[in-house]
Amino acid sequence: MVDQGPSGPSPTDILEYTLRFQVSDYFAFDNVIILDTLTDGQTFDMTFAPVLTFQEHDNSHTADYSLSTPTVTNTNGDIVTAYDHFSVNELFGTNLGCDGATEIAFDVSGILDSIRFPGFDDLVLGGLIPDGGVGAGNEPDATVFNGGPTTGELTFRFVVNEEYRKDFPSGDAPINSGDQIGNHVDIQGDVLNVEDALTPTGSTVTDTSNEELTIVDGSFNKRIDAFQDANAGSPTILPPAYSDPNVTDSATLLTVRPGDLLTYRLTVTYTPAIHPY
């Protein structure tokens, strides 16, 4: 979203995650929650309100999660910031299991049942499940009712840190070129009986997804820099294109024989403003 430094993910960049989900046509759910975990090296952007787009039975609406009047709790350095229908748990403290990660819980059912989503409620119904269910003894049937796909899209932003807080993969705090930062997400919901789309079955369904980003890395290049014929008195400096594996022109190929002396040039380039290695 905001590339502060070199092209590609790097410290101080503001990036965006988009989570997309779709509900089976044959199921109905309540208490739908998205649990997202940012690994150490990232900070949830609390200046950008997460945005949810939800479609059910051909009715679609988009609204953001409110950032007003949060409640903040600090327990030994672990900071929980609770908003309406979502919370951010920063595991930065000294409690057991704290690893620098950030856990975000989005109450999907809660916001759907709020004033931000008029015409919806806390129930999430598949495309073949009408309001009130399919009726006693019936199964979902597309010839009886078909409301189209039930889908959701949640977007939020985060900042790439300059240093890790707790978990140092390289042994030191700065985030280095080539490091990976990750995101893990679970979406879960309580399964309802489709006959009335209201009665809990006692089962909970969970789906997961993962994403990894690599901090923009440097480059390594090796080429023949000079060539000295076995019978020549001094080497010949070659143009950069000679013996460059990225150049396919046969005219740049160098022919050598036993006894010739080759000088190689190794070039390592790393991105400015990023701790290299």
Describe the structure.
- This protein has 277 residues and is an all-beta fold.
- It folds into two domains: 14-214, Immunoglobulin-like (Sandwich); 219-269, no CATH class.
- The protein is 2% helix and 43% strand.
- The protein is built from one helix and 16 strands.
- Strands 2, 6, 7, 8, 9, 10, 12 and 13 form an eight-stranded antiparallel beta sheet that branches. Strands 1, 3, 4, 5 and 11 form a five-stranded antiparallel beta sheet that branches. A three-stranded antiparallel beta sheet has the order 15-14-16, with no helix packed on it.
Apparent shape = elongated
Multimeric status of the protein: single chain
What structural category arises from helix and sheet content? mainly beta
> What does the main sheet amount to?
8 strands, antiparallel
Q: How many individual domains?
A: 2
> Helix count, per DSSP?
1
Strand content: 35-45%
Which CATH architecture of the largest domain? Sandwich
Outline the fold blueprint.
Layout: E1 14-23, E2 28-38, E3 42-44, E4 51-56, E5 59-64, E6 71-75, E7 78-83, E8 86-90, E9 102-107, H1 108-112, E10 124-125, E11 150-160, E12 180-192, E13 200-214, E14 219-228, E15 236-237, E16 261-269
For the structure shown, list the relevant keywords:
2% helix, single chain, Immunoglobulin-like, 16 strands, 277 residues, five-stranded antiparallel beta sheet, mainly beta, eight-stranded antiparallel beta sheet
